[in-house]
Amino acid sequence: MALVVLLLLVAVVALASLAWGARDVAPGQVWRALVDPVAGDNDHLVVRDLRVPRTLIGLAAGAALGAAGALMQGVTRNPIADPGLLGINAGASLAVVAAIAGLGVASTAAYLPFAFGGAAVAALVVYGAASLGWEGVTPVKLALVGAAFTATATSVITVVLLTDRRTLDEYRFWQVGSLANRPLDVLTTVLPFVLVGLALALAAGRVLNALALGDDVARGLGQDVTRGRLLVVTAVVLLCGSAVSLVGPIAFVGLVVPHVARAVVGPDYRWIVVLSTVLGPVVLLLADVVGRLVARPGEVEAGLVVAVIGAPVLVALVRRSQAVAA
């Protein structure tokens, strides 16, 4: 039942994304623009050329961020983990800064391979470093190595930005996180990675349920802990790399969404991942629509709106969990 309600909510928010903005378009006009567009009609041009790509990118990036957040919280057994915990956002940001400063890259589409590559390299470095030692990869080591990598990458980024004004001007628009001005061909390039990542995420629910009981219990239940954790990390890399490439390093979606899903369906990660995948687009598109409405005819980037909305929601969830525990 919860899944059906969320799917309907996705449809409503997607319609709002197509209809509302600096120029409001009636729902009937939106439908006609999609099924029977009229050449030269301004409303139809706005819907088809500007808002359809934006909405589709929001759906894909939101699903990726929501699922990745659920996976991160499950594999690290850390309720405040998010996709940035493995250093993925920092790796993507560092690669984009290097591309701007060293290669003169200056467009959203051109950032794509660098952001994705940086995210993948960061995850490989963090996972490889965390696997050193006789005990192998553990949730604590993943978190510590990820935090260390993020701090190092952030320091390098800061040094570059402070010494290169042009790079700062280019980077700050990507870094804040936005669905605006993203061409549809960016989505077609990234979508296969998103779909593979989501497939792996949905297959990892049983593994996460076992890992939630502890490594020893998981091994006793017949789970290959190392292989299972590697499966989850691979899915996170694909999902986070794709989302960061599409919309920049947007925070809070991957942090808050799994908490809401857990409150609805309980501790079963097979359902938490599913609901997080559906709820992520709702949060991201809703933030994008709100950002367009509060500053018309301009807009506030979705990354900023998500932070404003997500922080109070997270505080409320924490207070609720504390009250239940008491």
UniProtKB/TrEMBL annotation:
It is found in: Cell membrane. It comes from the Bacteria. The chain crosses the membrane at residues 55-72, 84-105, 111-130, 142-162, 186-209, 230-257, 269-290, 302-319. It comes from Nocardioides kribbensis. The keyword Transit peptide does not apply. It is a multi-pass membrane protein. This is Iron ABC transporter permease. Keywords: Cell membrane, Membrane, Transmembrane, Transmembrane helix, Transport.
